[in-house]
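A note on notation is needed here, since sequence and fold are reported together in a single record. The reader may check this reading against the record printed directly beneath this paragraph.
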Amino acid sequence: MSVTRATSATAPRIAATASSVTAPAAGLRKGDEGPRVKQLQDALVQLKYMTRAQVNTGYGTFGPKTEAAVKKFQADHKVPNTGYYGDLTHAAMKKALAGPVVTPPKPEPKPGVFKKPPVINAPSPNFNERGGKDIDTIVLHHTASNNGAGDLAHMRNPASDVSAHYMIDKDGKIYQLVNDQKRAWHAGAGELHGVPTDVNGRSIGIEIVNDGSGKTPFTDAQYKSLTQLTGYLKQEYKVPMNNIVGHKDVAVPKGRKSDPAANFDWNRLRKGIS
């Protein structure tokens, strides 16, 4: 079968509209040229198997890129994966073009990749310098109250001598009181994994509004915000999972602190940030 060979002068590179794109008659293979090849390429562009830029480098020529696109189409539509545009491929393409054009879904975000969640700036004067220490620990607390406004005011009061980097209210709102790079006053005397250390100097402190009784549930909104915030901080400062701890885990002497309360769901948090 003879095929009319198109030259660059006779092959205008015009993108076909969705309504004008149809499947060409069967019987095309690598090396063919001409209007039917252009029609095939336009169909492959319409179906997202080729880009217009790829087509424009060989519009009207059945080259390696067109063959690769045909093979991908064949594989996706369960017809022989030969690269030859025959009767079965023609029928599958005709059917595909008759239906709605499906845009390939965007890739899912990679697990464990977090952006810093929105925070409300509520500066506290209660901080000092870290003294050159790197951040490698995250300490979780309960505020020992169900009054978020009162807890926030207390940590912003210069006379209280306490603060944390973040506070998560019962509605999930996150307040930032101290810049990450500064040393907040949330942990007091402490140790990490049995070794005495300046916990405040190396950690980020997060207060969760809860009375700490073990009977008051931590809210879904709090867990969601805490997961996003802790995941971000873990990622940003390369904090090991075993350095994400409660105040009760680092306070000395042992038993001095009980937070976060016994009903805090550590498994839910760890699953969300792992």
Notes: Confidence is low (pLDDT under 50) at residues 1-19. Residues 220-237 form the longest helix (18 residues).
